[in-house]
Every structure is written in C-alpha cells, then in structure tokens.
Amino acid sequence: MALDYEALLDDLDVETVRLIVVLRGLTPDQWEIDTPADGWAVRDQVSHLAFFDDAARTAMEDPERFREESAVLIAGGMDFPDRIARDLRTMSHRDLIEWFVHSRSELIKTLRRTAPKARMPWYGPDMSVASSATARLMETWAHGRDIYDALGVRHASSPGLRSVAHLGVSTFAFAHQLNGLPVPDHAVRVALQAPDPDASAWTWGPADAENSVVGPAEDFVLVVTQRRNVADTRLVVTGPVARAWMGIAQAFAGAPGSGRPSLTAPSITGGNR
User: Fold this and answer.
1) What is the reported pTM?
2) Confidence at 125, pLDDT banded by 50, 70, 90
3) 3-state secondary structure the chain
C-alpha cells in the first residue's frame, strides 16, 4: 500500500472534525456516560486522545524529553493509560474539549511540517512519523467508536479506514511478540470489502494462503482495535494461524489488551483499550 502522507493527514482531520462536532453538542451528564471500555466514561476517552496527542508532538519535537517522561510513566506500570485517565477526571468538560481541540490542531500542524520518514520514539519501538500519524488516526477512530457506541450515535464511514486496516495487518508480528508468542511462519491472506460496495476488495498476503481473514473492512478494524470480539463480526476466519491472530490482534502500543467478551460466544475474547 503506497503512502499518500497528505491524504493520510486529511483523513485524520476528517475523523477529528466529526468527533469534535459530537463532543461540542454534549450535555454535562453525557460526558460522564460509561463507554464500552471498562471503567472509562466519555470524558476519559477524550482526555486519553488529548494527552497522547501532546505526547506524540513532544516525541517529534523533543525526543529526549519524551523518553524521560515516558520512562517515568512506564516505571509506574503498564497501566499508565488508566492512571492518566484517573488523574484527569477533575478537569471540567469545557476545559477538556478545548484541550483536545488545541492538542489535535497542534499535532496535525506538527505532522504536516515533519518528514513522514523521520523516526521518533514511542511507548513501544521507535516509529516513523507516518506511522505515528496512522496510529493517531487509528486511536481517534477507536476511541471515537467507544464514544459513539456509548451515546448511541452512528459512526460514519471513515475515509481513513483503509489506513487503519493496513496498520492492523502490519502489526501481525507485534501482536504475537507482545503476547510472548512466536511469530508464525505461515502467511495470512486478508481480503476486506471496502465501505463502498462497488470498490475492489482491499487485500494483503498471498491469494493461495491456507490461513485467511475475509469480510467487511469495518469489522476487521473493530477487531484489530479491540472494539469487538471476532465472534460478534461478519469476518470469516480460516486456519489456525488466522484464528489465533484474531484472538490477540492489537493495532495499538502498550500492554496486551485485557479482552472484551463476546456477546454471542463468551469463551472467545478480543481486547479492551
């Protein structure tokens, strides 16, 4: 998948604007509604996005400062996203939305003036700036989805869905390593139906692979961002390697996801944040 960096940033901007429109219309009580992420209200989803937008900008502009600050967080345990959310719960709703609007605006400005191939530190391995932009798009889509689900608001189809799906595929090895598992030698074919029914399928991996994941792109993204259990999607998963991967797939850095139970098959787990 060839990178169109400017288009990627435009997709991030679209997903951001849609989320901000919804957030600006919330009542004070709606900010406190529980989301599908255990223990997190709408406010926590937003503070998470704002905090890590600022962190990403620091990682690009002052990598040594980022390394120092991230080391302190990680030293306190890999549950640092939960600790950050707890620490920020005294912030007013007005200050919270303004923080997110500002942090996201400044992040996109920084991304636009930074070379996409430049390297930057993060909470896992170092990454390219383009990968960071894709990760911020993925996080916005995923945490936005939790907010939309909590509010009963439809999540409009995102122009950045293919980029998030690509991230989900490219983190195949990472997901296994994160869970202390050997990376399988067998390739997995991923064939996803784009939101536009007239568009060609988005595909990765050899067509003759014995292991495959086939189905709607949105369902695949829901699984790799750990917003749905694979059992609750329309994905057709074939082969032991593909089935095992769909149980641990994780497109985000940090500790392994804790698992979201299936609504239809409680014994199958996916992930949480």
Assistant:
1) 0.93
2) confident
3) CCCCHHHHHHHHHHHHHHHHHHHHCCCHHHHCCECCCCCCEHHHHHHHHHHHHHHHHHHHHCHHHHHHHHHHHHHCCCCHHHHHHHHCCCCCHHHHHHHHHHHHHHHHHHHHCCCCCCEECCCCCCEEHHHHHHHHHHHHHHHHHHHHHHHCCCCCCCCCHHHHHHHHHHCHHHHHHHCCCCCCCCCEEEEEECCCCCCCCEEECCCCCCEEEEEEHHHHHHHHCCCCCHHHCCCEEECHHHHHHHHHCCCCCCCCCCCCECCCCCCCECCCC
